[in-house]
Amino acid sequence: MGLKRLANFNDPTSLASRMRRKRFALFRGLIERLPRGSSVLDVGGTPQFWEGETLVTTGAIRVTIVNLESYVSTSPTIKQLACDARDMHMFADNVFDAVFSNSVIEHVGSFSDQQKMAEEVRRVAPRYFVQTPNRYFPLEPHFLLPLFQFYPRRLQAELLRRRDLGWMHRQPDYLDALREVSQIRLLNSSEMRLLFPGASLYRERLGGLTKSLVVYRGW
Description:
Blueprint: H1 3-6, H2 15-31, E1 38-43, H3 47-50, H4 54-57, E2 61-67, E3 78-82, E4 98-102, H5 111-124, E5 128-133, H6 153-162, H7 174-182, H8 189-195, E6 200-206, E7 209-217
Parallel strand pairs: 1-2, 1-4, 2-3, 4-5
Antiparallel strand pairs: 5-7, 6-7
Helix pairs in contact: 6-7
C-alpha cells in the first residue's frame, strides 16, 4: 500500500482517517461536557469536515469556521467566514465556548506567526483543542518523504522544483518552490507548550512514535 493511500483523509479506510476519527473522539468526549448548543470556532477547517457530524446535526454544538479561503456549506447550521488565524479581530474575547483546530498551526508561517495564532485561539474562547503533526515523527506528512522537515530550505525547494512530493505539486520556478516549502513549519512538544502555556498535551502515537500533538485546556 502506497504512502499516499495510507495518508489519504478522503479515504475513510486509510490509516490517516482512522487516526483522525480517534482524535475527534477525544474532542467529542470533551465537548459533550458543555451545555447543548455551545459555540465552537474551527480555525482553518472546512464545512465538509463537519457536515454529517452528529454533534452538529443534533444541535449539540454550533460551528463557525474561519479560513483564508471561502468554502460552500450545504448545512444551514455551519457558518463560514474568511479570516486570518493570526488576526481574528472580528471576534470579541471569549465570544465562543471552544476553539477546535486540526493540522493548521504548522501552515501559518514563522514561529512568530504561530505565536499570533496561538494568542488568538486563547483569546476568543476559554477552551481549546489544537492538533499539529509532530516535527520529530520520521515521515514528513505533507511531502511524504522521510526527515524532509530537516532538509535545508534550498534543498527542499530544489526537490519540489523537480517533481511532485506527496500532496505538494511540483513548482518549476525555484522561487515558487521556495515559497511553498517555507509555508510549513512543523512544531515539537516543547514549542507547543510554549505556545499554549498550562495546556494538557496528548501524544498521538503510531508504532510507538509520536505522530502528532494535541494541546487542550479549559475543559
